[in-house]
Amino acid sequence: MKESKEYKEYLESDDWKHIRANKIEEANGICEQCGWPLGNSVPHVHHESYDNLGHEEPEDLKVLHTYCHERKHPHMKEVKKDD
């Protein structure tokens, strides 16, 4: 997904920060892609689907290591920690 201005603003919103924090808590310190502990790495919350943007369902999101997130976005050289 090409990042639009609206998407970038959404990632900075209090709503997203709340959804992101809840999803990270639910993952219980485990990468939902590879199953390894997140350890001290900054968890990424990846959108599996953008269909419900702003009203995400649990299955729309995955908590990932940086490496696993970058593998989801091979076209991107750098992925932000808030994605």
Structural description of this entry:
The longest helix has 14 residues. A two-stranded antiparallel ribbon has the order 1-2. With 83 residues, it is of the alpha+beta class. It has three helices and two strands, in the order ααββα.
Give a nutshell description of this structure.
By secondary structure, the chain is of the alpha+beta class. 34% of the residues lie in helices and 10% in strands.
Describe the SSE topology.
Elements: H1 5-11, H2 14-27, E1 44-47, E2 61-64, H3 66-72
Antiparallel strand pairs: 1-2
Taken from the alpha-carbon principal axes, the silhouette is globular
Q: Quick check: average pLDDT? A: 86
**Strand line-up in the sheet with most strands:** 1-2
Number of distinct beta strands: 2
Which spans of ≥5 residues are poorly predicted at pLDDT below 50? none
Salient structural properties:
alpha+beta, globular, 83 residues
